[in-house]
Amino acid sequence: MLVTLARFLDPWEAYVVRALLEAEGLPATVAHAHHAIANWPMSLALGGTAVQVPAPLLVSARALLTDYRTGVLEQQLNEDLGIRSEHCPRCGSMDFKRTMPLHRRIGALVIVLFLAAYPSRRSLFICRNCGGQWRWGQE
Ligand SMILES: [Zn+2]
Fold first, then answer.
1. CA-to-CA distance for 130 and 90, rounded, in angstroms?
2. In the chain, what are the domains?
3. 121 pLDDT exceeds 70?
4. In this structure, are residues 133 and 125 in contact, taking their beta carbons and an 8 Å threshold?
5. Among 4, 15, 74, 7, which residue's Cα sits nearest to residue 45?
6. Average pLDDT of span 116-139
7. How many angstroms does the Cα of residue 116 sit away from the middle of ligand 1?
8. Where do the DSSP E strands lie in 28-128?
9. How far is the CA of 105 from the centre of ligand 1 (A)?
């Protein structure tokens, strides 16, 4: 019997999670993805897109989903690739929020309203631990 592991508003994220589960040897399926494509508001009313797994594998699947959502898997990938995860250059903390300076917000609004997508790599990082600030790729 299949049980629902998680629901997603974005069906593509559901497919990413399914692929992640299958890569770890946990069979999974995506349900209700066609609702999101055919009728987005109806999909939201029905609870979004579901990722389902066999009931006996639910605990293992939840552990993997938790690692995905908390960034543990991304951190492992960065370590495997020799890339240091984004961190505060002052204290090394990885607990930070991402913000954008006001002039860039106004610029983004203008671009979004009148042109196209905005380059998000210009974001400003602010460390929640010490208040240190830095930009992408700067230390
Ligand atoms: Zn810091």
1. 8
2. 2-81 (3.30.70), 96-135 (no CATH)
3. no
4. yes
5. 7
6. 76
7. 33
8. 29-31, 49-54, 96-99, 124-127
9. 24
CA–centroid distance, residue 98 to ligand 1 (Å): 13
Among 27-36, 54-63, 89-98, the range scoring the smallest mean pLDDT is 89-98
From ligand 1's centre to the CA of 122, what distance in Å? 19
CA–CA–CA angle 57, 63, 68 (5° rounding)? 120
Q: How far is CA 95 from CA 21, 127, 129, 133, in A?
A: 27, 6, 7, 12
CA of 90 to the centre of ligand 1 (A): 5
Answer whether 29's CB lies under 8 Å from 55's CB.
no
Look-up: residue for tokens 């974001």? Answer: 123
